[in-house]
Amino acid sequence: EEVPVSAVSLWRGVLASEGEPRSIQEMLALFEKFLHAVDIAEGIEPAEEADPAVARVRHG
User: Are 53 and 34 in contact (CB under 8 A)?
Assistant: First the structure.
């Protein structure tokens, strides 16, 4: 059973897997990963293509 995931927990999962950004370019890259995680959480994109850290956040 899938558990609903908040945007905050997805963002924290991305930060946990990638670390804090040190530049604008790194922040943009993290934001892209976050948007990708949101697509996966909403079922827009298959979880199999997800970053393993994102999959852990989604499935616990």
Answer: no
